[in-house]
Design brief:
244 residues; alpha+beta; 4-stranded antiparallel β-sheet; 7 helices; 44% helix
Length: 244
């Protein structure tokens, strides 16, 4: 039994690591697509794409994943990709928005619906949960190795055109109007290394996931994250600090 238990624990840790890696690759794929769509697929002439490709390399992202993101942006082979947003409720009723980029709406809709159903959630109609989110520019600067206090960072963010900032032990989170995100990003990256710079849906009032639903909820997010069609997952949910 002890051997079985050890094997089970190793498999569990590996599953968690794979899920975390999947979320990282998902984020990089989305950024690669957006950078290539905006400035072309040649990294020599697209500094933002070159930056995202460097991040992909640092994360050991497979070249096939990188190429798939670039192919989506360029429409290689005549494929036409559509952006679709799904809205639903996770286990416990927490709001979840799923942004997809797909060349087959039926395939993607079926996969998203299956993930929600499989993990005790449900898809909702368009507009059913969108009101619980605000669209904002979102910039993250990590504090590790950064000798800057909160007041200095706040002043720099406001001078760059940001609307607000939230500081925690490990990061500064800076919020902007969506239309100002690029200008704020450009101003701040002259002084700092940015971990994240994107426009995303920010929840108004995150709600706690019931303790007996946490496993189901994280299973839902992990399954959605593993789908290559999914670009973003926005959650109006609060989980305990020890749950990723």
């Amino acid at each position: 039994m002890s051997g079985h238990s050890k094997w089970h624990n190793i498999q569990g840790r590996k599953g968690a690591q794979d899920a975390k890696r999947g979320k990282i690759f998902q984020k990089i794929s989305r950024n690669l697509y957006q950078a290539a769509k905006a400035g072309g697929v040649d990294p020599d002439g697209n500094p933002q794409l070159r930056l995202e490709m460097d991040k992909a390399k640092a994360a050991n992202m497979p070249k096939a994943n990188v190429q798939r993101a670039l192919d989506k942006a360029s429409g290689v082979g005549g494929a036409k990709f559509e952006e679709i947003t799904y809205e639903g409720y996770g286990p416990g009723g927490t709001a979840v928005m799923v942004s997809a980029l797909t060349d087959n709406k039926n395939r993607t809709a079926s996969a998203v619906r299956s993930a929600f159903t499989h993990h005790g959630g449900s898809l909702g109609a368009s507009g059913s949960v969108a009101f619980q989110f605000d669209r904002k520019g979102y910039i993250v600067i990590l504090r590790d190795g950064l000798d800057v206090d909160e007041d200095t960072m706040l002043m720099d963010a406001l001078d760059a055109g940001a609307d607000d900032m939230k500081a925690s032990d490990d990061r500064f989170e800076i919020f902007t109007d969506p239309s100002s995100m690029t200008a704020v990003r450009d101003a701040l990256q002259d002084k700092y290394n940015l971990d994240t710079a994107e426009v995303k849906m920010i929840p108004n009032t995150p709600t706690d996931v019931p303790s007996d639903k946490i496993s189901q909820y994280t299973g839902l997010i992990d399954e959605l994250s593993e789908n290559d069609d999914i670009q973003d997952i926005y959650e109006a949910a609060k989980l305990p600090d020890d749950v990723e």
